[in-house]
């Protein structure tokens, strides 16, 4: 490595060498790391596409008395490189409510995401993980509940008089407000 | 800050360590020839970093390995660059190892007391080769799969223990999920771990015995820092720039060449892969093997390479003898020159083989196709191979070459681009059902040629006679009418490529349908067309060339609807179970030009 012509001063020459060694070495080390970090952060740039409504069941299969029933949601789903048609992507509790309507609740607990149970004896929803208790309409049923909010309701529509269509969605657990998972 | 460092130094003694590391004496001053060890360490560190990142996205199983690598290469941010660096740094390591070895042997740096430096170095060389062999399989593409199969079989041919070793390494009697999990464990765990240990020992020994100066020493000694460090840094950067250049260089020659490391089509044990070759630095062994056919193979695959490796291991001890150093130099250079020569021969041989060229071209085409299909619709659970297995564009030519090309041709070749040895003895099916194809059929100059009925028994049949006698005498007006009949019959096929024309020229097509029955055209004398005709003797042209028609025809050409008893040699592929219904559909769709992404992708991203 030739030194610049004006740096006859040995100190400056020495400094120049040291600085170049550090800079060049730094660049050489930074490139492989720099190539990997974008891949590591790749998930941040990906959005979960909000699913379209799916036909889950016909209203006749829901009990008249408003008892909830659990249904699996089948929809097409993308998981990294794979594409699944009609794969289970989650589950909902469906229940008849007044006015010929249907209520849909995501089974996933808003506290930390466990699968909430329906306790038929007490006609309430009970989460098996930390015992969050919810009313039939999904609201919190305890004074101090582990869950920061009630169960997540989903958009639901009765089409052609009998078909129950649900727009399935997951929300972030642990927040007092319902935030869509992006 | 200073207190923190003092505290740290007190607990670790790092200041002394750094000082020792940086102020190591370099006898005779810094030199470029000392950089190889550092560049190698650098390349190894690159591999550890990029490899670790790749592990974040790689999935080792036969249904996810190719798929996850595809995803890294084509979907994830910067994946092509990361994979490219890992791929080319591996090759750089091999080159650097050879250079380092040359420098050590030429300088006599392997002699006492540095025998162990040398031995640990050679062990690392072998381990790096092991990394390369295992890494080649991990993407689970055709190229890696078949090359690794060869290596595994050679290992399995070792007497006595071979079969068991092979079974343990590939995790069963055949390649499968456990081959990948095992190769990954070896590639990303065992070998790097051992290499790290050996590097520590190696560097410790280098430091203990010092660098070997080239005699005579003319310049004063200096400290490692900064002179030699600067040279090392420049060399490392040069290595890196070379790697980056190799990643982007394909783009310099063609604007849509893939960037970075190649990814072949997904591994398919049922699909012949004539383009199988090992990585370039193993080519010499591949070529070497060719000179040891049959029961002599073991000499080429195990015995001779082991003897050479044994001699290399013994170099430090041989070097003690009077002519030992000369012998070592001779050995090194004869191996290197021999390897270079063999590599050249391997390339030269392949260049002269048209089959190899064709196989390579086909390999690239199916790799591209697999990626295009994966991007179009995502990969099904069963893996990317399903995409290719259900793709008319991929399977059609293969099926055609296998089942049809002994008589038919497709655009003059066998579907895959090769020319069969025997002459065509049935029509060329390129564009079957299209207006051009049918126009040739009613053209006196073509109907009896080998690309239509020339090779069949229908050469003297009614159709050919009609065309040769009647059509030859047609006046311009009659020819015009015949053209409309052709349009009408061709419209039956409903070809994608002709959809526009069919839609626009409805009136002409309508007229053609009427003319078909006209006594002047004589078609209806033999053919049934769009209405029942008990006396028809020739193939029914209702729906001619449509998907349904062609599937039924290939399934059973001897059916009454088609040739009946007059059928020439064509087998009833479906009825006689020579092709499955799925295969017949694929073949049909391909002949009719119906497959996803019929227009090539505007330009794949990478
Ligand atoms: S996850 Fe349901 S209560 Fe904690």
Can you list the ligands bound to this structure?
Answer: FE2/S2 (inorganic) cluster
Structural class of chain B: mainly alpha
User: What is the rounded Rg of chain B?
Assistant: 34 Å
Strand order of the largest sheet of chain A: 1-9-8
Shape of chain A: elongated
Share of β-strand residues of chain B? under 5%
CATH architecture classification of the domain at 33-269 in chain B = Up-down Bundle
* H/E element sequence of chain B: HHEHHHHHHHEHHHHHHHHHHHHHH
Biggest β-sheet of chain A: count, sense, barrel? 3 strands, antiparallel
Instruction: Bin the helical content of chain A.
Output: 10-25%
Topology-level CATH name of the domain at 33-269 in chain B: Cytochrome Bc1 Complex, Chain C
**CATH first level of the largest domain in chain A: which class?**
Mainly Beta
Return the CATH architecture of the largest domain in chain A: 3-layer Sandwich
Question: Mind summarizing the main beta sheet of chain B?
Answer: 2 strands, antiparallel
Total number of domains of chain A:
2
- Overall mean pLDDT score of chain A? 89
The low-confidence runs of chain B, each spanning 5 or more residues with pLDDT under 50, are 600-606
């Amino acid at each position: 490595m030739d030194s610049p012509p004006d740096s006859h001063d040995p100190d400056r020459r020495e400094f120049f060498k040291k600085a170049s060694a550090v800079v060049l070495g730094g660049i050489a080390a930074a490139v492989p790391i720099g190539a990997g970090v974008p891949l590591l952060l790749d998930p941040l740039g990906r959005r979960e596409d909000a699913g379209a409504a799916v036909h889950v069941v016909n209203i006749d299969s829901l009990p008249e008395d408003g008892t909830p029933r659990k249904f699996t949601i089948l929809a097409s789903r993308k998981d990294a490189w794979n594409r699944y048609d009609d794969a289970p992507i989650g589950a909902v509790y469906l229940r008849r409510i007044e006015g010929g309507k249907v209520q849909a609740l995501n089974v996933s607990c808003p506290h930390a995401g466990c699968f909430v149970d329906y306790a038929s004896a007490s006609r309430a929803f009970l989460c098996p993980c930390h015992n969050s208790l919810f009313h039939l309409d999904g609201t919190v049923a305890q004074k101090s509940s582990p869950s920061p909010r009630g169960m997540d309701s989903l958009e639901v529509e009765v089409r052609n008089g009998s078909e129950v269509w649900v727009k399935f969605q997951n929300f972030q657990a642990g927040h007092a407000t319902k935030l869509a998972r992006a | 800050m200073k207190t923190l460092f003092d505290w740290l130094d007190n607990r670790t003694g790092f200041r002394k360590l750094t000082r020792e590391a940086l102020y190591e004496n370099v006898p005779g001053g810094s030199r470029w020839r000392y950089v190889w060890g550092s560049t190698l360490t650098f390349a190894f560190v690159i591999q550890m970093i990029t490899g670790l990142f790749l592990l974040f996205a790689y999935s080792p199983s036969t249904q996810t390995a190719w798929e996850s690598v595809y995803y890294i290469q084509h979907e994830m941010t910067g994946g092509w660059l990361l994979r490219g660096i890992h791929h080319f740094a591996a090759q750089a390591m091999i080159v650097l190892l050879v250079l380092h070895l040359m420098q050590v042997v030429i300088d006599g740096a392997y002699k006492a007391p540095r025998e162990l430096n040398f031995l640990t170095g050679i062990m690392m060389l072998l381990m790096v080769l092991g990394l390369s062999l295992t890494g080649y399989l991990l993407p689970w593409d055709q190229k890696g799969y078949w090359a690794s199969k060869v290596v595994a079989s050679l290992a399995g041919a070792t007497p006595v223990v071979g079969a068991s070793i092979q079974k343990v390494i590939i995790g069963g009697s055949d390649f499968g999920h456990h081959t990948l999990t095992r190769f990954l464990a070896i590639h990303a765990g065992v070998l790097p771990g051992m290499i790290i240990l050996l590097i520590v020992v190696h560097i410790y020994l280098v430091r203990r015995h010092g660098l070997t100066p080239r005699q005579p020493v003319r310049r004063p000694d200096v400290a490692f820092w900064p002179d030699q460090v600067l040279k090392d840094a420049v060399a490392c950067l040069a290595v890196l720039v070379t790697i980056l250049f190799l990643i982007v260089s394909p783009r310099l020659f063609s604007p849509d060449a893939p960037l970075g490391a190649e990814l072949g089509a997904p591994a398919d044990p049922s699909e012949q892969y004539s383009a199988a070759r090992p990585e370039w630095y193993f080519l010499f062994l591949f070529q070497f093997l060719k000179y040891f056919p049959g029961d002599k193979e073991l000499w080429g695959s195990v015995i001779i390479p082991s003897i050479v490796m044994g001699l290399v291991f013994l170099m430090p001890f041989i070097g003690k003898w009077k002519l030992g150093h000369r012998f070592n130099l001779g050995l090194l250079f004869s191996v290197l020159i021999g390897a270079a020569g063999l590599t050249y021969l391997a390339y030269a041989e392949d260049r002269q083989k048209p089959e190899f060229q064709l196989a390579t071209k086909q390999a690239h085409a199916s790799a591209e196709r697999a990626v295009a299909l994966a991007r179009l619709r995502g990969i099904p659970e069963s893996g990317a191979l399903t995409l290719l297995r259900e793709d008319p564009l991929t399977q059609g030519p293969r099926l055609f070459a296998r089942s049809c090309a002994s008589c038919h041709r497709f655009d003059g070749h066998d579907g895959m681009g090769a020319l069969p040895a025997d002459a065509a003895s049935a029509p060329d099916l390129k564009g079957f059902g299209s207006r051009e194809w049918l126009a040739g059929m009613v053209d006196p100059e073509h109907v009896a040629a080998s690309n239509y009925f020339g090779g069949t028994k229908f050469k003297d049949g009614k159709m050919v006679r009609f065309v040769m006698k009647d059509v030859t005498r047609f006046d311009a007006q009659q020819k015009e009418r015949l053209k409309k009949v052709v349009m009408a019959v061709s419209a039956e096929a409903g070809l994608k490529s002709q959809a526009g024309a069919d839609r626009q020229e409805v009136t002409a097509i309508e007229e053609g349908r009427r003319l078909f029955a006209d006594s002047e055209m004589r078609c209806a004398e033999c053919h049934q067309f769009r209405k029942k005709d008990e006396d028809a003797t020739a193939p029914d042209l209702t729906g001619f060339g449509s998907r349904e028609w062609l599937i039924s025809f290939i399934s059973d050409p001897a059916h009454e609807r088609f040739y009946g008893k007059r059928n020439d040699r064509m087998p009833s592929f479906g009825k006689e179970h020579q092709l499955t219904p799925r295969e017949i559909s694929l073949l049909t769709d391909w002949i009719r030009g119906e497959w996803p992404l019929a227009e090539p992708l505007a330009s794949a991203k990478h």
